[in-house]
Amino acid sequence: MKREECEPLTAASALMPSTESLSHLFGEHHRRVLRAAYRITGSMADAEDVMQTVFLRMANLERPLDNAGSYLYRAAINGALDLLRSRKAVTTEPLDQADDVVSAGPGSSPEAEAASKQLGDALRLAVSELSPRAAEMFTLRYLEDLGNREIAALMGTSQAVVAVTLHNARSRLKKRLTEMGGQINATR
Amino acid sequence: MRHDEALLRTAIEKLRETEPEAAQVNAASMRVADRLGIDLAHYPVIEAIESCGDVRQLLTAYRGGILSDSRRLVIQAHLRDCGACQRYYRGGTESALLDWSSPKAAGGFAWRPRVLGWALTSAFALLVIGLFFYRAFWQVPPGVRAEVQSIDGAAYRISDAGDRQLSVGDKLQEGERFRTGGGAHAVLRLADGSSVEVNERSVLGVGERGRDTTISLDNGAVIVQAVKRTSGHLYVKTADCRVAVTGTVFSDQCRNQRIARGRCAGCGPRHACRYR
């Protein structure tokens, strides 16, 4: 997302129902929101955009929410997944991401780190190809470490549905990763 | 472990290990806060409440009621346990102890058609029942109570206006007394058609309440020939007893008997239903 699109935010902030309340929500939840978005997107710039979008949406809500924390958390995950879907065709990588590869810990070769990073990116791409509901469940279960019961409560469904959806998602992701693993090896 | 399973696990681990650095997080947070118009310096960013200092920084938001439920509960629990923070909370701004919540609007009287309908129906039913009982037992009907059919001797009407000698055809009203002199006899006809033979030196009055007619015999002797009534009773009341007469049928104690010659034949000597 380009920075120019974010400039009129000062004017938008005037529409906020309660800047004081939003400030405290931001102070309380922004790190969790940012980290969740970062784990999914793998990019701080993207996570920052997601966080901004989420809090802006929160500010423009007409009615206060009962559980703003859960709303922000889910909105961040879904926003990050949406961003992945919209960018799955883009293969370019920002320069600041290269720091992760060269600054890897001792004992690990840059080649292994690059392969591992490619594997992570492959999983992100595969997750973005899942249905939005399955992608959200998978993210909540395996990246945010929530239990099936919590996911079911959060998404308003049953544990059985969550379990089946996760099983199908895992099957699809395994198949897709195997396909993409071949492509990764072929490019080396 | 199968290869695809291992591959998925490795990829998941890779993503889980993806944690941004604190400096990156702070810088991104400051940028977003700046764009949203949030002054993070004024509103302290406290990720976890770990000390009294964290609690005190959030007290302003706690007073304002804008904290999340979880944080509000944590601060409430801490204020209960920590005397220093409790004093800080109370001493910081005494005005915070005031109830700043908007007062509840006083519940105004609201017309509810259903309740009003039931109330009106109940009131109407009570009115009808009351009117029925009033007319049946308490109402003093207007009109003449008795008429003199025949007089043998002297008979008088005693009223608030004074005594007046009566003649055949005169009428008795409510509250007036009828008195016969010594050696006199008279026959009265009541409004319902019953006849009352009055012996000498007798004093009586005729009153009506609702559908009932009562001959109040103060002194003397009478013979009553009652007509059959469709409603109400004809009573003969003395100082000792009151006898109900329906047609020729008396009350339970005087069933199927007539009052004759100043004595209720069915009552017997133990009964007080005796005319003097």
What does this structure look like?
Helices cover 72% and strands 0% of the residues of chain A. Chain A has nine helices and no strands. Helices cover 33% and strands 24% of the residues of chain B. With 276 residues, chain B is an alpha+beta fold. Chain B is rod-shaped and about 135 Å long. In chain B, β11 (234-237) and β12 (242-246) form a beta hairpin. In chain B, the strands form three sheets. In chain B, strands 3-2-5-8-9-11-12-13 form an eight-stranded mixed sheet. Chain B has a five-stranded antiparallel sheet with strand order 4-1-6-7-10, with no helix packed on it. In chain B, α5 (69-81) packs across α6. At the A-B interface, α1, α2, α3, α6 and α9 of A face α1, α2 and α5 of B.
| Rg of Cα set of chain B | 49 Å
| Total number of helices of chain B | 7
Summed over residues and divided by their number, the pLDDT of chain A gives a mean of: 75
Return the structural class of chain B.
alpha+beta
Compute the separation of the termini of chain B in Å.
Answer: 126 Å
Assembly context of the chains:
heterodimer
Q: Secondary-structure map with pairings?
A:
The complex is a heterodimer of chains A (188) and B (276).
Chain A lengths: L8 H5 L5 H23 L2 H16 L8 H19 L11 H5 L7 H19 L3 H12 L4 H8 L3 H29 L1
Helix pairs in contact in A: 2-3, 2-4, 3-4, 4-6, 4-7, 6-9, 7-9, 8-9
Chain B lengths: L2 H14 L5 H15 L15 H6 L1 H6 L4 H13 L1 H10 L20 H26 L7 E7 L2 E5 L2 E4 L5 E2 L4 E4 L4 E6 L4 E4 L4 E7 L2 E8 L2 E4 L8 E4 L4 E5 L2 E2 L8 E2 L2 E2 L12
Parallel strand pairs in B: 9-11
Antiparallel strand pairs in B: 1-4, 1-6, 2-3, 2-5, 5-8, 6-7, 7-10, 8-9, 11-12, 12-13, 14-15
Helix pairs in contact in B: 5-6
